[in-house]
Amino acid sequence: MSPQTASAPRLQAAYNGKTYENTLPTTVSPLSGYGALLKRWLFEKAEREPLAPLGPFRADAAALAAPVPATALRATWLGHSTLLLEVDGRRILTDPVWAERASPSQLMGPKRFFAPPLPLDKLPRLDAVVLSHDHYDHLDPAAIRFLAKTTVPFFCPLGVGAHLRRWGVPAARITELNWWESAALAPDFTLVATPARHFSGRGLTRNDTLWASWCLLGPTHKVFFGGDSGPFDEAFRQIGEAYGPFDLVTLEIGASDPEWADIHLGPDNALAAHRLLGGGPLLPLHWGTFNLAFHAWRQPVQRLLEAADARVPLLLPAPGQRVDVAAGPLNSRWWEG
């Protein structure tokens, strides 16, 4: 683990023996109450779901299965926060969700806007699965059960391993980390769990598992995977000081709203976090896949394009489109089709 930054003690989530709490006071419930939220859900007219079907999108399974060059840095966005990363000869999958709905039931709840661009059984051999937290839109039991049949190791925040074991992942293949703890994927490749400002829970439970962002530190390239987080300036500053600048930064931009501003960034706060992390190519996540907020489904990326200046190299691939980060900024404009 890198030496502690000199500016301040490293931030840690509080744990009372049963639940975790954010370092900063954090409101999860809507500020105006659930009644006001229901009125907005019923009467606001934003295009929260695409009016016409999206896709189909197709990832190139054969190309993704080829050996990863030792100095490669590539990313394939498969929707929401699911990324297939190719970093310095290794493949890492983040927050795998292939489910039709981000919900405890596949009969109801937010439904995918497009089918996954890569079927689960076409995934190439993976070197790691990295999980940010246990919400339904980030942790899919069916996908985990499928991956449990392979030999891939899983890396997750504290407590999330219980879900994985229940779904068939052997305990020996699970590494659970607290913020700032690290694990070696290989002698020259380290994964570090870092702070985030969010919450956790499935069903009626809340905050009995930890949430995290991640630093993926290869011999040539460094990647930041933000998971879900609200504004957390000191944490992002500490992460940037300890491990940045990054060759690729991935941050959430969707499912944001002033009613729950403590737990999601949205486009403007994502750009602020990006600066604190030290800049670098920015690939936005957590948008354009599920209806999880009141904003129009295109709004996060449209606002990001409005707010970002020329110093922010944006990577905006279509779902399933493989990005070579060294090739520079990319704007596919797939949401305009």
- Mean pLDDT across every amino acid position: 96
Q: CATH H level: which superfamily?
A: Ribonuclease Z/Hydroxyacylglutathione hydrolase-like
Radius of gyration: 19 Å
How many helical elements? Answer: 7
What is the string of helix and strand elements? EEHHEEEEHEHEEEEEHEHEHEEE
Shape: globular
Query: What is the CATH C level class, in words?
Result: Alpha Beta
Number of structurally distinct domains: 1
Biggest sheet layout: 7 strands, mixed
Helix content: 10-25%
Strand content is 15-25%
Low-confidence stretches: 1-6
Looking at CATH, which topology would you report?
Metallo-beta-lactamase, Chain A
Question: How many E strands?
Answer: 17
Strand order of the largest sheet: 8-7-6-5-4-3-16
Please state the second-level CATH architecture.
4-Layer Sandwich
How far the N terminus sits from the C terminus, by CA atoms, comes to 45 Å
Assign the structural class, choosing from mainly alpha, mainly beta, alpha/beta, alpha+beta, or little secondary structure: alpha/beta
In short:
With 337 residues, this protein is an alpha/beta fold. It has helices spanning 34-43, 61-65, 141-148, 161-166, 233-243, 266-277, 299-307; strands at residues 14-15, 20-21, 73-79, 82-87, 90-94, 128-130, 154-157, 174-177, 182-186, 189-194, 213-217, 222-225, 248-252, 282-285, 315-316, 322-324, 330-331.
Question: If you had to describe this structure to a student in words, what would you say it looks like?
Answer:
Residues 90-287 form the Metallo-beta-lactamase domain. This is MBL fold metallo-hydrolase. It comes from Hymenobacter armeniacus. The strands form four sheets. The protein has a seven-stranded mixed beta sheet with strand order 8-7-6-5-4-3-16. It has a six-stranded mixed beta sheet with strand order 9-10-11-12-13-14, with helices on one face. A two-stranded antiparallel ribbon has the order 1-2. The chain is an alpha/beta fold and 337 residues long. Helix 3 links the parallel strand 6 and strand 7 (154-157). The chain is built from seven helices and 17 strands. It is globular. 18% of the residues lie in helices and 20% in strands. Residues 1-6 have low confidence and may be disordered. It has a single domain (57-327), classed as Metallo-beta-lactamase, Chain A. The longest helix is centred in the last third of the chain and has 12 residues, at 266-277. Helix 6 crosses helix 7 (299-307).
